[in-house]
Amino acid sequence: MFDNLIPEQNPNRYSTKQTQIYRLIKALNQSGFGYRKISGYLNSKSILTFTGKVWTPSLVHSVLKRFRQRQERFKVEK
User: Fold this and answer.
1) Which of 14, 15, 36 lies closest to 25, judged by CA?
2) Where are the beta strands (DSSP E) in 1-78?
3) Do the beta carbons of residue 35 and residue 57 sit within 8 Å?
4) Cα angle vertex 32, ends 51, 5, to 5°?
5) Please, are residues 48 and 69 in contact by the beta-carbon 8 Å criterion?
6) CB within 8 A of 36, min separation 6: which ones?
7) Per-residue pLDDT tens for 15-55?
């Protein structure tokens, strides 16, 4: 089974741009913004997703969720 969260099976780490966008999303979320407001903010600043699309609330949720899952997986492996 292939799992993108396992670093040995996916040696491609997040790019610098992806990490910056994640940190921005996380900071906005921690300051009280909901997924809809965050996606609106990113779209208003013309920040596109990794695949070049506009942000939706579900994509913002997915970014936060997948990063958190990846961090938890790293803790288990060590």
Assistant:
1) 36
2) none
3) yes
4) 40
5) no
6) 57
7) 778 888 989 999 999 999 999 999 999 999 999 998 899 99
